[in-house]
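user: can you give me the structure for this one chain? tokens are fine.
assistant: on it. calling the predictor now.
[tool input]
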Amino acid sequence: MLCVSLMPETTDQALDGLHRAAGAADLAEVRLDAMRRVDLDRLLDHPPCPVIVTCRPVREGGLYDGPEDERLGALRRAAELGARYVDVEHDALSQLGDVPPERVIASYHNFQETPGDLPAIHRRLAESGAGIVKVAVTARHILDTVPVLRLLREAGAATIALSMGERGMLTRILSLKYGAPFTYAADDVGPEAAPGQVTLGRMRTLYRADRIGPATAVYGVVADPVGHSVSPEIHNAAFAEVSCDAVYLPLWVEGDAAAFVRTMSEFDLGGYSVTIPHKQGVMAAADEIEPVARRIGAVNTLQRRADGSLFATNTDWTAGLAAIEAVVGEGWLRGRRALQVGAGGVGRAMAFGLAERGAHLTLADLDADRAEALAGELRAETCSPDDIADIPCEVLLNCTPVGMHPATDATPVPQGALREGLVVYDAVYNPAETRLLREAREAGCRTVSGLDHFVRQAVEQFELWTQQAAPVERMRQVVVEALGA
């Protein structure tokens, strides 16, 4: 179930929020501590959805700094008027008075850290006999979510356990998988009530949180930072399109990604997308690495197999080559002369892919030593970026970020290098048509957009994880809409 947290200033605003919540959320929490004035009788006179009344004091991260007896009196009155629950802090439970225990949420908040004695804190709250125990702590690192998830998984009493902040967002979703009676969401039009809350709209439409249960499979993207990633939009839309009971989460992993993946193995996450800066480091967590990915020295996909082992691969090169072959035909690259600009992360993947397809490769990079090192691994040739226009080739690839939004006027290739019949590939997918691709098209070249590559690598991940055909057009539509392409 979903509970939307409302931070109104007046009774009218609170009632407006309750009417917005009705039908979209299962409950609504009204934070009295945010209100300048409140008419409890009017607020709780046949509300359109069940109501939790909270008046959080400053000492527990709230806004109320008035007399304690007035605060607790308002909570008692709310219970008398029919509030489904009143939320009472751990240090005020004994002062609450005559409120039926089943109507009480006994809560503990820590806005500084995740304390080491969470089980003991939970046990003390559970001993109060409250209908629901709530523990909300702060995640300074994503691994701080582990004791919170364990607490949820092992709790005997009805328990809500959350890690606050962006690093702890996964607990707001996975709490429903591990038995929480409900989780909190932010109001779509108001301020969040706690750090890291996800809006009600995104909880329902993006994560389909109202459908998450014990059998829901979990996937995610490992990145640092992660807020820019559109992968949650792509994969969650794909799961919804094929009615797959699965959810895909953004995972902000700082530091050792392999340690994160190893630690999370106890929660049986089904797989991961991996992006900057973890494509190399995460390999240490894998039990098996696909041979080409091992040669590339980077992976972007992890799959947890039925026996619990972790398989790592790189769909960047397979998707990139598939995007090119969709234009030129399968097998066309064998024996062709390929000129690639860029020998970094994507460049390494594409260079090994071209070698796998039997192309004759020349590499150019502003970092000449990097180009020479990669060329040595592949027995390829190198050239200076200044000489690109003079190198004979049949396919030209840009594997640099040159031309990416917002610097869309830039191009890594002089117009003189573009000629009719040349195949031009650009790894940049935002914008969908870069300056390079536009000038190539105008010169009569056949073009391959990085957007196609990006969609295909996500498609390959989806099919590896689910063992079913991906809804390719739906995934492409999501990317186009997300990028405004």
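assistant: here you go. The domain at 2-213 is CATH 3.20.20.70 (TIM Barrel). The two ends are 35 Å apart (CA to CA).
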